[in-house]
Write a structure and sequence with these properties.
Keywords: ATP-binding, Nucleotide-binding
Strand content: 25-35%
Structural class: alpha+beta
GO molecular function: ATP binding; ATP hydrolysis activity
Number of strands: 17
Helix content: 25-40%
Radius of gyration: 25 Å
Order of helices and strands: EEEEEHEEEEEHHHHEHHEEHEHEHEEH
Organism: Prevotella nigrescens
Protein name: ATP-binding protein
Mean pLDDT: 92
Strand order of the largest sheet: 2-1-6-7-8-9-10
InterPro entries: ATPase_AAA_core, P-loop_NTPase
Largest sheet: 7 strands, antiparallel
Length: 427
């Protein structure tokens, strides 16, 4: 779980902007006690006008974990990042994240230019006491970075040397593990890297292109299938079943002719290309008073398909410990269905976190957010600098009886487009 995060000089974020998931009050469902006395919010919601930069904080969170786990093999490759703020693009980008992995807190900080990492540090809290994991400092182009490992890791001198030699100036020390052979004393590094790979997910990971595979997986997993069917029924979509039909798909005659006549292909290659391939077709069983009937996936509405995609995320959120970043979660969903989705997550998850952007204002009228304003941020782009600002819902000094919805509608919370008159000059 993420404890807190901030970014500086990243996309539309010029000055340091951050999100804290430390719960202001204990709640049995909205927060989780990740460590004795430490409660973290499971939910983070970002509101803002179009082009305000609300999605950019999601990209920054994704990026800091990418930097931790993805290595480079070519020193000429750029550091894994998105562009810095345009007006300060020659200055370093700085990212920070504090998170818990397998119950242990880690604090990671990194500063970098497009060509190389200037410095990074990783601290952790075994037995709740702060200790150095590693720190590195850039020494110059073509020169190995200065790297110091914490004594509590108990790494041998040979392991330290191997890690340092495999750490290029354009990727993190932790990710160098991916380029070396496993050794027994490297377990702390391997465990952390593997945790991040398994539990932190990219923005809207595994959407439309893998929907068919997800349905196929559900057909072979009774628990997963039962979850899908229950959630589809509760969504009032008139869907009470689904199935995957596998058929052999022949190569079209015109393509067969082109392959056969192409002298660049070997006979063996032609044979492989001309063989019929398995093709999966997905059908949903819809119900009516006159009987059930099947509709292929291609004829389902985009809203229905989006909801089914979201069920993949929801299942993993409530059955495991995951961090999901979702952009425009509310897209094409009825507001009641969105609220139902969130309540299922809140009441059935334990140590997962869901951070998402939305334009669905009706959520701001719900007790869920009005009683827990530390779950929501309002993102506004400053007119004088074109930089994004992120303000938490409990930072505006609103009276406890004031509605976030009403306050937002009248402009007290910012994060709204300033449109002016709807009369325009066509000349």
């Amino acid at each position: 779980m993420i404890r807190d995060f901030w970014a500086e000089n990243y996309l539309s974020i010029r000055e340091r902007q951050g999100l804290s998931f430390i719960a202001k009050t204990k709640d049995d469902f909205l927060s989780y006690e990740i460590s004795p006395g430490v409660f973290l919010n499971k939910l983070g919601i970002l509101y803002g006008a179009n082009a305000s930069g609300k999605s950019n904080i999601l990209y920054a969170i994704q990026n800091v974990f990418e930097l931790l786990v993805i290595s480079r093999t070519d020193i000429n490759e750029a550091v894994i990042t998105r562009p810095s703020f345009e007006l300060t693009k020659t200055e370093p980008t700085r990212l920070h994240v504090s998170f818990y992995a397998d119950g242990v807190r880690y604090d990671y900080d990194i500063a970098y230019l497009l060509s190389h990492i200037l410095e990074e540090s990783l601290y952790y809290y075994p037995n709740n006491s702060k200790a150095l994991f590693y720190e590195r400092t850039f020494k110059g182009e073509g020169i190995q970075a200065e790297i110091k490992f914490g004594a509590s890791l108990n790494l041998t001198a040979a392991t330290k040397k191997t890690l340092a030699e495999n750490t290029l100036n354009n990727h993190s020390v932790l990710s160098a593990y991916r380029k070396i052979s496993l050794k027994e004393d490297i377990l702390p590094i391997a465990s952390l890297l593997n945790w991040a790979v398994r539990h932190v997910h990219n923005i809207n990971e595994h959407q439309r292109d893998s929907l068919g595979e997800e349905i196929k997986e559900a057909c072979g997993d009774e628990k997963l299938k039962r979850f899908y069917l229950q959630m589809l029924k509760k969504a009032d979509l008139n869907i009470n079943g689904f199935r995957v039909v596998t058929r052999l798909k022949e190569v079209p005659e015109n393509i067969r002719k082109a392959i056969t006549e192409n002298e660049m292909f070997t006979e063996e290659a032609k044979k492989r290309m001309l063989e019929p391939k398995d093709s999966n077709e997905i059908f949903f069983v819809n119900q009516s008073k006159e009987g059930d009937f099947e509709i292929p996936i291609g004829l389902q509405s985009s809203g229905t398909l989006h909801y089914i995609e979201m069920l993949h995320f929801l299942y993993h959120l409530i059955t495991g410990s995951h961090i999901y970043l979702l952009d425009e979660l509310d897209e094409k969903l009825h507001d009641d269905l969105l609220l139902y989705f969130l309540n299922v997550f809140i009441y059935h998850s334990e140590s997962s976190q869901l951070v998402f952007t939305t334009q669905e204002l009706s959520l701001l009228a719900e007790d869920l957010l009005n009683e827990h304003r530390d779950l929501v941020w309002f993102v506004e782009k400053k007119q004088d600098t074109a930089s994004s600002e992120y303000n938490r819902g409990d930072s505006f000094g609103l009276h406890k009886n004031s509605s976030l919805y009403n306050s937002y509608k009248i402009g007290k919370l910012g994060a709204k487009p300033e449109l002016g008159s709807f009369f325009i000059d066509l000349d």
